Amino acid sequence: MPNAATARPADASRPQPALKLRFLSHGTLDSADLDRSRAFYEEFLGLEVIRTSPVSLMIRLGGDNTIAVVRNPKKSTEMPMLNHNGLDVATQEEVDEAYRVVMEQKDKWQISQITKPSLQHGTYSFFFRDLDCNWWEILTNPHGGYSWLFEKGDLEGKGHMDKGFARPGVKTQ
After folding, report:
1. What is the pLDDT of residues 21-73, one digit of tens each?
2. Using the 8-state DSSP alphabet, how is residue 121 labeled?
3. Which of 155, 130, 125 shows the shortest CA–CA distance to 8?
4. Residue 111 and residue 73: Cα distance in Å, rounded?
5. What is the chain's alpha carbon radius of gyration, rounded to the nearest angstrom?
6. Which partner from 70, 113, 117, 170 sits 20 to 30 angstroms from 126, CA to CA?
7. Which domains are delineated in the chain?
8. Strand-pair category, 135-140 with 85-89
């Protein structure tokens, strides 16, 4: 299991970037129906939502990073599961409760392909696909999301993919 002695600090010998950027501000999702998606984001996920134009929304939760949601009625491909969006809770019990709610309301919100909660990639989580075929993961994470990993720096071996990786909020068997 990696520790401070085997991890490279995040800022050690870091090359100077070609671009002088200051903030990773947003990502983008497709939506076939912005009104239906907005209801899902607000009423089910509890996200903050604003309409930014006739063809777009902006969503966020708990910070300054946002996701633009753009109307694309001709969307022909599904988002791959690996390109999912993470929604953090503090404990495994909260993940289990979220799973219960997702299962209870899946038909109302057209949620599909729901995985069971499990220990995976260093966290306790489950995934589901929304009405626009976008993937979401509900997972245990401390306040600030994955930012705590930057304090560890580069990890060796399996890193956070190791089932025994010590992680805040996760009880291992």
Report:
1. 888 889 999 999 999 999 999 999 999 999 999 999 999 999 999 999 999 98
2. T
3. 155
4. 18
5. 18
6. 70
7. 23-72 (3.10.180.10), 79-173 (3.30.720.110)
8. parallel
